[in-house]
Amino acid sequence: MTGPKILTDIPALQRHRARADALFLQEAAADEVQDRLMMVNRSFTAPAVVTPFSKVWTPRLPNAVICTDSDRLDLSEGAHDLVIHAMGLHWANDPVGQLIQCRRALKPDGMLIVASLGGQTLEQLRSCLGQAEIALTGGLSPRIAPMGEIRDLGALLQRAGLALPVADSLTLTVEYRDAWHLMRDLRAMGESNALHDRHRTPARRALFEETSRLYTAHYATGEGRIPATFEMVFLTGWAPDESQQKPLRPGSARQRLADALAVPETPLRD
């Protein structure tokens, strides 16, 4: 038997993150998480944040335990009433395992918030890179990490045993001078290619020149700049507890919905 396929070259990812100095996506995610916490009628006294960028979170949650998003999270079981998994799930070799570990770190009725990049992220760059590589080499190689769609990411919460799951998303569009500018910014974010199956030899410059040409041809704005999409998906779930609301048993309703809404009922066609 073989183990699960390895997605990410962890040492390469760590090297990229160590050089990161453009953390505006991390900051945007942290702001969104804080806004969501303000809407929860509860005070959290034992938070933890799973992040490689502690400097983004420590000013916001100075009493939080910070741990990196390694394959085994350094979190104590049942120790936290809030766990935030911040912008690293798309690089996880075992995303469900990450969420299970977060759930185990929660106290009963503790809250998990996950901020992750979603499937629309870098859709323009992904398309242009693919077209350029097919034109120049006749094939494709792994260059951008696969990122889950919001429905699939939301389903991971239930697989991890979390209650009351909710998923929503926020799309940011950032404009750049050209594709070269975008790719430099991705390196500065620590988000350049760290896929395990990537080519280990540098790509030909012609690939990126063709990518830049296609990007400008297909997506340039009226001002000649190019847009890059970043979809941030936010997942919320709770550690199961007897105090939580439970869904009613199917068929247990005592009144028809049409009667409750005082509207006529229209049968569906066969």
Task: Describe this protein's structure.
With 270 residues, the chain is α/β, with parallel strands linked by helices. The chain has 9 helices and 6 strands. It has helices at residues 10-18, 24-38, 54-57, 95-105, 123-137, 150-159, 179-189, 205-219, 257-261, and strands at 47-50, 65-67, 80-86, 106-117, 163-176, 226-238. It has a 6-stranded mixed β-sheet, sandwiched between helices. Helix 5 (123-137) packs across helix 8. The model has no long low-confidence stretch (mean pLDDT 91).
Hey, roughly how much beta strand do the residues contain?
Answer: 15-25%
- What letter string, H or E per element, gives the SSE order? HHEHEEHEHHEHHEH
Biggest sheet statistics: 6 strands, mixed
Radius of gyration: 22 Å
Query: Which structural class fits the helix and strand makeup?
Result: alpha/beta
Shape: globular
Would you count the extended β strands for me? 6
Low-confidence stretches: none
Number of helices: 9
Fraction of residues in helices?
A: 25-40%
Order the strands across the largest sheet as they lie in space: 2-1-3-4-6-5
The quaternary structure here is single chain
What is the terminal separation in angstroms? 48 Å
Average pLDDT, to the nearest integer? 91
Strands, helices and their partners?
Elements: H1 10-18, H2 24-38, E1 47-50, H3 54-57, E2 65-67, E3 80-86, H4 95-105, E4 106-117, H5 123-137, H6 150-159, E5 163-176, H7 179-189, H8 205-219, E6 226-238, H9 257-261
Parallel strand pairs: 1-2, 1-3, 3-4
Antiparallel strand pairs: 4-6, 5-6
Helix pairs in contact: 5-8
